[in-house]
Amino acid sequence: MKQIHAFPVLDGPMATASAYAMAFRDGDTPLHPKASPQSLRAAFGGPLPEQGVPGEDVISDLIAAAAPGLVGTPRSGFFAWVMGGSNKTAVAADWLTSVWGQNAGIYECSPAAATAEDVACGWLLDALDLPREASVGLTTGATMGGFIALAAARDAVLRRLGCDVAKTGLQSAPRITVFVCDDTHTSNRAALRYLGLGTDNVVEIPSDDQGRMCVETLRRKIARRPGPKVVVATAGNIHSGAFDDFEALADLAAAHGAWLHVDGAFGLWARCCAKTRALTNGIDRADSWSVDGHKWLQVPFDAGFAIVRNRDAHRRAMDISASYLPEGPETGRNATHYVPELSRRARGFPVWAAFRAFGREGIADMVCNHCDCAALLGYKLRQRDGIEIVNDVVLNQVAIRFDRGRGAWDTDRVTQSVADALNSDGAQFVRTSVWKGRRVLRISVTGEQTGPVDMQRLAAKIAVIWDQLKSE
Questions:
Q1: Alpha helix (H) residue ranges in 53-160
Q2: Do 195 and 151 meet the contact criterion of CB atoms below 8 Å apart?
Q3: Other beta carbons within 10 Å of 248
Q4: Residue 8: per-residue pLDDT
Q5: 219 alpha carbon, distance to own chain's centre
Q6: Of the candidates 110, 158, 6, the residue with the CA atom closest to the CA atom of residue 336
Q7: Is the pLDDT score of 256 beyond 70?
Q8: Phi first, then psi: what are they for 280, rounded to 5°?
Q9: Which helix (H) or strand (E) holds 283?
Q10: Cis peptide before 302 (omega within 30 of 0)
Q11: Are β-strands 177-181 and 229-234 bridged in parallel, bridged antiparallel, or unpaired?
Q12: Which tens digit of pLDDT belongs to each residue from 118-156?
């Protein structure tokens, strides 16, 4: 039987924060911020106080200033981006993470944080069914996850040619060619820029109508490029949810000695659901992967993972060592081997809590539910004249256009008008995007509380708005 601890009653700033936090999560929090930039600046601004302010007053003032400018991301009506909804158990663990104040950089700073992170990273490999020998760096999100993995890729492909980039730098290194899809996420381009690889060394491969990399074009172009190579693939296109052909890409990478990295910010979680797992066939043959924890694992911001098959390559790219930074014991873990941070938040606690709270079945059920929700919305809207579902709804993304038969310019304009109407009463939070030269209403389903009833309501509301707009 578990021991029951007697905890003191909260008072002061923690009591104020805790009471508000419960009301925020359980209440009817507005989806849309109400404040203007000027009013937010006025609420947060003013001169630096000469004397300290009592803690409970500071927290009360913070709540009053911030509340009008908050976005209701955890609510079921949030469809603008793939963000997740912050599971309550993981949030509670995140509170404790702040209270404990642990620096999770090295084992000796916090054996508990290091061990929780190590176990959670092992569970990640198990849940995603990726090579168990891979190493995992727990970082801020898939953007940094991609940066870390591509840093390992850069160093590894140069090492094969006898170049130690850590010693000589890039000035004397052979030029690396990086092959990306023209529809790759912008964070991958940013990571390549941060790594000093340069846009002149990036070869864009055209994509099909769903945003998948054209394998035949890659086959021709990769054969023409000598020297070290990296291929960046995508699991879950940000607009369509589409997946590249990983078997074919892995074959090409192997044939040309290229490093294959997969940007799987949210799509990698498709491996957890039996209905969607086939979309990821061959993905386990890659050399590295990046994936978010604050999306489909519902961990509070921020959490992301860099997964690298070759542990030595990962460590060479990231290692921070010094005489005053002792190595952990044989069974311990120094996170500084796998991420570019020395002082770092103990993100392993909320990640560990999220895995425990959901379990393997809970993660699978949530991914399957969200994909079913997207499919339901697509099915409902396809039945109406003038509404085009632009993508094949294979995951949790639905890209929609509204056509009154008056030309592309009008279709772009009326698509934006539908989005504006959906946002007008505050019951949904949606955004449009330009994909392949056309404006689309993009619905992303990742909120933990979102279910089929929400999709039925959204489809009905879109139908009413469309009936009004198409006759104007």
A1: 55-66, 88-100, 111-128, 142-159
A2: yes
A3: 16
A4: 65
A5: 29
A6: 110
A7: yes
A8: -100, 10
A9: none
A10: yes
A11: parallel
A12: 999 999 999 999 999 999 999 999 999 999 999 999 999
Contacts 24+ apart (CB under 8 A), 453-458: 454/76, 454/77, 454/373, 455/373, 455/374, 455/376, 455/377, 455/380, 456/376, 456/380, 458/79, 458/377, 458/428
Asked whether 432 and 68 are in contact (CB, 8 A), the reply is no
Return the half-sphere exposure (C-beta side, CA atoms, 13 A cut-off) of residue 240.
20
Of all residues in the chain, the percent with pLDDT exceeding 90 is 79
Determine the distance from the C-alpha atom of residue 91 to the mean position of all C-alpha atoms in its chain, rounded to a whole number: 17
Better-scored residue on pLDDT, 235 or 77: 235
Is residue 329 over pLDDT 80? no
User: Which H/E stretch holds residue 193?
Assistant: helix 186-194
- The 10s digit of each residue's pLDDT in 427-454 is 999 999 999 999 999 999 998 889 999 9
State the greatest distance between any 2 C-alpha atoms of the chain, in Å, as a whole number: 73
Closest listed residue to residue 411, CA positions, set 393, 434, 431: 434
**Each residue's pLDDT tens digit, 313-324:** 999 999 988 888
Which of 469, 153, 204 is CA-nearest to residue 316? 153
Q: State both tokens at 102.
A: 């642990």
Torsion of CA 334, 335, 339, 341, to 10 degrees: -90
Q: How many CA atoms lie within 13 A of 23 on its CB side?
A: 8
How far lies 21's CA from each of 87, 175, 448, 472, in Å? 13, 51, 18, 45
Q: Are residues 93 and 349 in contact, defined by beta-carbon separation less than 8 angstroms?
A: yes
CA-to-CA distance for 427 and 32, rounded, in angstroms? 9
With cut-offs at 50, 70 and 90, classify the pLDDT of residue 405.
confident
